[in-house]
Potassium channel toxin alpha-KTx 2.9
Amino acid sequence: TIINVKCTSPKQCLKPCKDLYGPHAGAKCMNGKCKCYNN
């Protein structure tokens, strides 16, 4: 799921993704936006 959070690295996405999807959520930075996924 792409969320509306700007990023330059996946680390910036980890907290917002975990806040939204819980502690097991993963995060990537794609095209300057965060992408969250559940494992």
Remarks:
- The beta strands are 2-6, 25-30, 33-38.
- The radius of gyration is 8 Å.
- The chain is about 30% helix and 45% strand.
